[in-house]
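Please, structure for the following, as tokens.
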Amino acid sequence: MNVTELRPGNYFIDEKVLYRVIDILLNKTAMRKMVAKIKVQNVRTGAITELARNSGYDVEEARLDKRTMQYLYDSGTTYVFMDPKTYDQVEIGHQNLEHEAQYLVPNLEVIMVSFDEEILGIQLPAKVAITVSDCEPGVRGDTITNGGSKDATLETGMKIRVPLFINPGDKISVDTTTGKYDGRA
């Protein structure tokens, strides 16, 4: 695959390293070959770099395997997921899911991404329903000082701002891209 055919979200292999395209800029000047400036993320390390390649440069397209998995529990050092069709269990280390861990609640369905039998990570749904475990009581008339919101701790340990009418035990919807309150679940 030619570098000029890459689009954001594509995965490719260059010099035996697996990359995900974040952004691409094609630059063509008068007498020079087109240069593709590609902002990429190394999928294994998470490092973001910029590559510059001429238009004739070819890279190997990477085919990722994606399958639906169900989160079961935290074993202390790993998170355990199960394939709902085959009941196979897969464990992923805590260090691989630092950001995603705050959204993991039992029985949550996620998409597990792997490449050549190596698990790269998981994709969360856009919104997750999580129970509020603790929050301060909403005081009537407190909308001026706090803007109509208060701090709340969720069952996963995540802390977010929620409206004053939310109480402990309520299920709320949290946006997984922004980490903000999205509504009642």
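The longest strand covers residues 17-27. Residues 59 and 96 are 27 Å apart (CA to CA).
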